[in-house]
Write a structure and sequence with these properties.
Layout lengths: L10 E2 L18 E2 L4 H18 L9 H9 L21 H6 L1 H12 L2 E5 L5 E5 L2 H8 L6 E2 L8 H4 L8 H11 L5 H20 L10 E3 H18 L5 H20 L18 H21 L7 H7 L10 H31 L2 H12 L15 H14 L6 E3 L3 E3 L2 E3 L4 E4 L1 H5 L19 H6 L18 H18 E4 L8 E4 L1 E4 L4 E6 L1
Parallel strand pairs: 4-10
Antiparallel strand pairs: 1-2, 3-4, 5-7, 6-14, 7-10, 8-9, 11-14, 12-13
Pfam family, one: p450
InterPro entries: Cyt_P450, Cyt_P450_CS, Cyt_P450_E_grp-I, Cyt_P450_sf, Cytochrome_P450_monoxygenase
Cofactor: heme
Length: 523
């Protein structure tokens, strides 16, 4: 399916089709086959944009370097570079993007279409795609044209490599190592451990119920999910102090990764009031992972878990994971295994509490369990809870899911040079009125309507990514969310402050800015 107003995905490098203006025909590289009048006009508009930029004395800072590089390779042309905001001569569009990355990308999609370029400092740029078909071209690429880490792979030997940082044979072998621990059989085995930890810690919220005290539930959920994940996947327990420190350190770690996109502040190199330093957080995480590894080697267990699987795993050539790879893999697994659920569930609760009609239906569904602790067999009975979680993830969104183009490519008729950062804006696609009626409205019924779901493009909703790097922990995330929603509303009712509204905070995951302030009462 091709978006209105954009060139068709099918391209040719041969002569231009009949009907194009003479000054464009055959001159600008790959052009659409059998272009429509709308497509001809789009190409002409692109040429006019190029001509206006060429007359700009600052053009060399607005993309001249990648433009010259592209032309030097003899592939593509500046006229077929994606359109986009002009930006500042030196800083590009980064200041505007930093102020509000979510609405910035959505605004650009409305103005420039389904493929657009965002200028970065010193002539750099990223390309954002805003159509599920183009997102699939990047995310589902089967032959290695797009990479999550790109040129950064050279540093993996120094700092260690986790599965999101790998490509090719190493990636496939590492994924095979981890997949058994995230399959249904293993999740069924650890479900009791997870539910037990959830119940024990959520029961502790009783001290807040009826007190009138305002509690940050986003932080409280983090204190529930992190120890549950460690027990389930690593058969390990940590102290309350370590839970607090690890929560802070993992968020600092993710902030470091997010800063690469220039959408969040650079991490602190030195401690500041209220903010941890990145070096100290990384050192504490490294110390924790090394301790987990050492303890397991000294005290093997009979029932295999994720940690023992990693310690025993070997590549096809018989070599084990390096110590650096083991530590980095544990850090990434901890960050992805709990922080993303914390963020998505917090968004779900915030939106549910603002819509009593949907919350009432959830409470009725939870009551059907008759107070029993949920099990995997109960998940089909918690279908509305899953729909509420999916709708929360849709509106939570993510500003950009980036990849590196490892070779020249064409997306939607626009030339993408090698090493360009390119990816979909989930926030924009998840709120696109072409795929979602009343896109800003929280309505879990969207995910109960199978016919409507079939009418949407597959990647109109992709909270866990797609393709080779589709999140391994998707099944665990849904189980955790459904379990926690049931356990919370079996025990409590929650109320938001009057006039409070959720706001996005980008820290690699997308959390609630300022947390989730609620007052608890007993159900």
């Amino acid at each position: 399916m091709c978006p209105i107003g954009a060139p068709t995905p099918t391209q040719t490098r041969g002569p231009a089709a009949e009907g194009l203006p003479r000054e464009l025909a055959g001159r600008w590289g790959p052009l659409p086959m059998n272009p429509t009048v709308r497509e001809v006009n789009e190409i002409a508009r692109t040429q006019r944009r190029f001509e206006s930029v060429r007359q700009d004395p600052w053009w060399i800072t607005r993309g001249g370097i990648p433009m010259v590089s592209s032309m030097a390779r003899g592939v593509g042309s500046p006229a077929l570079s994606p359109p986009g905001p002009v930006g500042h001569p030196i800083l590009g569009s980064v200041p505007e993007m930093r102020r509000e990355p979510f609405e910035f990308f959505r605004r650009c999609a409305r103005e420039f279409g389904d493929v657009y370029r965002v200028p970065f400092p010193l002539g750099g740029s990223i390309v954002v795609v805003n159509h599920p078909d183009y997102a699939s071209q990047v995310m589902d690429d089967p032959v290695g044209r797009y990479s999550m880490i790109g040129p950064g792979q050279a540093a993996m030997g120094l700092i260690g490599a986790a599965i999101p940082m790998l490509e090719g044979d190493k990636f496939r072998q590492r994924r095979r190592m981890l997949m058994p621990m995230f399959g249904r059989r293993h999740l069924a085995r650890v479900a009791e451990v997870i539910a037990d930890e959830f119940v024990r810690r959520v029961d502790g919220w009783e001290r807040w119920a009826g007190s009138g005290r305002r509690v940050d539930l986003q932080h409280a959920i983090a204190q529930v999910t992190l120890p549950a994940f460690l027990r389930a996947m690593f058969s390990s327990s940590i102290t309350e102090r370590e839970i607090h420190e690890t929560d802070v350190d993992l968020r600092t770690f993710m902030s470091m990764m997010a800063s690469v996109t220039l959408m969040s502040p650079l991490p602190n190199l030195f401690p500041l009031p209220g903010r941890e330093s990145a070096p100290r957080s990384m050192w504490r995480l490294w110390r924790l992972t090394r301790r987990l590894i050492k303890d397991r080697r000294n005290n093997p267990i009979e029932t295999p878990d994720l940690l023992s699987l990693l310690l025993e795993a070997t590549y096809d050539d018989g070599s084990p994971l390096s110590e650096r790879d083991l530590s980095m893999e544990l850090m990434i697994l901890m960050a992805g295994g709990y922080e993303t659920v914390v963020a998505s569930l917090s968004w779900t609760l915030a939106l549910l509490l603002a819509h009593p009609e949907h919350l009432g239906r959830l409470c009725a569904e939870v009551d059907s369990l008759n107070g029993a602790v949920p099990t995997p067999d109960d998940l089909p009975k918690l279908a509305w809870a899953k729909a509420c979680f999916d709708e929360g993830q849709r509106l939570q969104g993510h500003p950009l899911n980036p990849r590196f183009a490892m070779e020249d490519d064409v997306i939607g008729g626009y030339f993408i040079p090698q090493y360009t950062i390119v990816g979909p804006s989930l926030y924009s696609i998840h709120r696109d009125p072409r795929w979602w009626t009343a896109p800003d409205l929280y309505d879990p019924n969207r995910f109960m309507d199978e016919a409507a779901a079939k009418d949407r493009p597959r990647l109109a909703f992709m909270p866990f990514g797609s393709g080779r790097h589709h999140c391994l922990g998707t099944g665990m995330a849904y189980m955790n969310a459904q379990f926690l929603l049931a356990i919370i509303f079996q025990r409590y009712r929650l109320a938001l402050p009057e006039g409070w509204e959720p706001k996005h905070h980008f820290n690699f995951s997308v959390t609630l800015d300022g947390g989730l302030p609620v007052v608890l009462t007993t159900a």
